[in-house]
Amino acid sequence: MPFQAGFDKPVNWTPDSGGNATALNILGWDAEDSADTPEVTHTGTNGEQAFLAGIKRSSCTISLNYNSSASPKSIGITAGAKGTFSFSTGGTPHSLHVIIEKVPYKSTVNGVVTLTIQAKSDALKADGTITSSVAFA
């Protein structure tokens, strides 16, 4: 697969509370998959460490400029909100169901107002159903 430029790869947001997907014109994003790895070393592992793959989780951070015509709150982006981010990477988009943890804003004298969405994977949708879209990869 060829390398992909990031400048034409938006992130779409669809809130669980309803509404259409909104394309976020982002500055950039990061996503990470991880898993708990409980140690299960015992006398039968011959002195070698052994682990199990435990709970899987993902997290993401999305940076963007504040857009007053589509403010984050008006499209359901607030701390505690649940929904799905769809990340464009040039191939099949990666969807991640999340709960938003933080939405810090930043303003500089000679710049624009920016915000950074910090979210983590959440298998429980707002309506109580379970989703399998909790791993980025």
Give me the count of strands. 8
Q: Major beta sheet, specifics?
A: 8 strands, antiparallel
- Figure out the total of helices: 0
Helix content: under 10%
Kindly describe this structure.
The protein is mostly beta strands. It is 0% helix and 39% strand. It is built from no helices and 8 strands. Strands 1, 2, 3, 4, 5, 6, 7 and 8 form an 8-stranded antiparallel β-sheet that branches. Strand 5 and strand 6 (94-102) form a beta hairpin. The model has no long low-confidence stretch (mean pLDDT 88).
Task: Give the secondary structure arrangement, pairings included.
Blueprint: E1 11-15, E2 22-24, E3 26-35, E4 56-65, E5 82-87, E6 94-102, E7 105-106, E8 114-121
Antiparallel strand pairs: 1-2, 1-5, 3-4, 4-8, 5-6, 6-8, 7-8
What are its keywords?
137 residues, 8 strands
Short structural description:
The chain has no helices and eight strands.
